[in-house]
Amino acid sequence: MEYKFVVTGFWVVLLVLLALLSHRVDSEPTQDKQALLAFISQIPHANRLQWNASDSACNWVGVVCDSNRSFVFSLRLPAAGLVGQIPANTIGNLAQLRILSLRANRLSGQIPSDFSNLKLLRSLYLQNNKFSGEFPASIPVLTRLNRLDLSNNNFTGSIPYSINNLTQLSGLLLENNGFTGTLPSISNLSLVNFNVSYNRLNGSIPASLSKFPASSFAGNLALCGGPLPPCNPFFPSPSPSPSSIPLPHQNPPPKNPKKLSKAAIIGISVGSVVLLLVLLLILILCLRKSRGKAAKTQKPPATARSAAVAEAGTSSSKDDITGGSGEGERNKLVFFGGGIYSFDLEDLLRASAEVLGKGSVGTSYKAVLEEGTTVVVKRLKDVVVNKKEFEMHLDALGKIKHDNVVPLRAYYYSKDEKLLLSDYMSAGSLSALLHGSRGSGRTPLDWDNRLRIALTTAKGLAHLHVSSKIVHGNIKASNILLRHDPPAAASVSDFGLIPLFASSTQPSRAAGYRAPELLDTRKPTFKSDVYSFGVLLLELLTGKSPIQASLGEEGIDLPRWVQSVVREEWTAEVFDVELMRYHDVEEEMVQTLQIAMGCVSTVPDQRPLMNDVVRMIEDMMSRDDGLRQSSDDPFRGSDGYTPPQGSRTPPPPALTP
Ligand SMILES: *[C@@H]1O[C@H](CO)[C@@H](O)[C@H](O)[C@H]1NC(C)=O
Ligand SMILES: *[C@@H]1O[C@H](CO)[C@@H](O)[C@H](O)[C@H]1NC(C)=O
Ligand SMILES: *[C@@H]1O[C@H](CO)[C@@H](O)[C@H](O)[C@H]1NC(C)=O
Ligand SMILES: *[C@@H]1O[C@H](CO)[C@@H](O)[C@H](O)[C@H]1NC(C)=O
Ligand SMILES: *[C@@H]1O[C@H](CO)[C@@H](O)[C@H](O)[C@H]1NC(C)=O
Ligand SMILES: *[C@@H]1O[C@H](CO)[C@@H](O)[C@H](O)[C@H]1NC(C)=O
Ligand SMILES: *[C@@H]1O[C@H](CO)[C@@H](O)[C@H](O)[C@H]1NC(C)=O
């Protein structure tokens, strides 16, 4: 709720600023305003909905205009006390409308046929009203629809086959109505959310819909097949199950499914909070312990090498490390293939170093050698494998060469110290870029760059999976490193190290990004990598860190938080406020959200392969490049403060609220 206010507030501030700067306070969508005035004058509504006719319609409660204030972009009047039929010739005249939400009112009757004019509509939320009649004929015409929610109404008749015309549809929610007949086969839709529960449907569930859970189909007259029990062979049906046993078609619907699921939700939330507290406690204890340890180990000369890397110019300890005790030959820096570096351990120990970050596998330092070379040194802690295994594993990792994988350059192994050397990426980590000092004059990461980071990261991971057969095992924003040139090219680091550590410590790693099955299996897989990548996509979309202590009140993880918001309304609320300024990318954001939701599927087999993810992102980007050049983009060529076509740069910083 609060987030919604922030978003709305942002819009209001932005629009007011735009208006002031362009001296066009009076500019407004005249035609759309008439349609809205006609609507509000004909329909009973709540008192708080005071649309002042002498004010610009763009300033009215629930109305958002495009940046040029030339048309109404979205109309959201949830729970506004609207009663009765939607009058014809009102909302149907908002020809440019993209989002319409009239949920939770007492609207009744049929949807006016002039809704078919809303050709650009992407989201239609009419749930929780008293609409009746057949499935509105005007809806299958709205081919841009992405989200359609007609749930909790009194619709009857059959669900028409023509919803197959809505090829962009990702959410179709029709539960708690009176729909009858059989389910049409819905073939080409990329549906993510689907629910027809508690209607009066019968017949078999089409194969294309059988991927949805039983609760999507519960409480109907006689649906069968798919996730429900197989169809009774005495009933003719398009795809009868071969080995079907006559079964009672339908378990009676639970008396009150809502109550049950509420209890479950409360259980889960309480569980997560307790788990979180326990994890926090463990973390604090661990930190204390390791701090104590570190303080001690800095003194005795035997482990001075630990400090030597960390502290600038402490060359006093170098003899101790390379020292002539016969170990000198063995304890050397081992460089991989050819190597672009020409320094030895002594040089490294003389380097000035600064801590980059403490991760779950060890601490990273940025080391600047006297000759000017900068490398990243990672001190691994709690390595359990022996030297031979270590070397074999590292040799395999050292062979990996790809633009989007941070190359490993060298390693060092001794009894007390295990070091990894890799290239230093000057543009820092995604984590710093996304979450570092938000709001204080920082340039927000724009959508194009986020998308490029997502694509390049996916490419790096796909290379690890396919060419190197290596599970990354520790995907998180702080392990995605960026280059300035080319801009926003990401590389994955810290890959494939998990086999070096005891499996009992795995679950504590990368909390927030960890696939649910790892709590049991403890062994990261390609599929658990895909899950973590999905969380990373959600992080790019929402701007929220998955390891933030709490998202909203419930303290749930990022995927579940997104799911909970998306269940209500698909778009605006989940996205990063910093992205809300880019109107013309909302479709890409929604598509990316769909890809992310597929990746964070709780069932590992339902997640796509990393290769598929790369292809999906590339497809989306090439498709939308085409779209953006087409003339139907309402934001093209407007005067100055909206991004020019093609290069979607943010508006001047002065406009940032
Ligand atoms: C409507 O807006 C005008 C100008 O903005 C203002 O003068 C007037 O008082 C407003 N009327 C109401 C009822 O708020
Ligand atoms: C659906 O699309 C087909 C072909 O694209 C068209 O013939 C048909 O009229 C459309 N149906 C509706 C209800 O728009
Ligand atoms: C739903 O519609 C039917 C007729 O189609 C009517 O009898 C019934 O009262 C309606 N229910 C509600 C809750 O409006
Ligand atoms: C599904 O998509 C394929 C190509 O993507 C197309 O050839 C086919 O006609 C589509 N089927 C329907 C029912 O729209
Ligand atoms: C569904 O129910 C209707 C009427 O109740 C009936 O005519 C039809 O044959 C049923 N279809 C299936 C597949 O059971
Ligand atoms: C479908 O809707 C019903 C009723 O609101 C709900 O209990 C069920 O969990 C929903 N299923 C899915 C998969 O969303
Ligand atoms: C913006 O508004 C002005 C005046 O209302 C109009 O001339 C111009 O074409 C509009 N631009 C766009 C992109 O709609």
TrEMBL record:
InterPro entries assigned: At_inactive_RLKs (IPR050994), Kinase-like_dom_sf (IPR011009), Leu-rich_rpt (IPR001611), LRR_dom_sf (IPR032675), LRR_N_plant-typ (IPR013210), LRR_R13L4/SHOC2-like (IPR055414), Prot_kinase_dom (IPR000719), Ser-Thr/Tyr_kinase_cat_dom (IPR001245)
Region (Disordered): 235-258, 295-325, 623-657
Residue ranges of coiled coil: none
Database matches in SUPFAM superfamilies: L domain-like, Protein kinase-like (PK-like)
Domain annotation Protein kinase: ranges: 350-642
UniProt xrefs under PANTHER family: OS01G0607900 PROTEIN, OS05G0588300 PROTEIN
Protein name, per record: Protein kinase domain-containing protein
Lineage, top ranks: Eukaryota, Viridiplantae, Streptophyta, Embryophyta, Tracheophyta
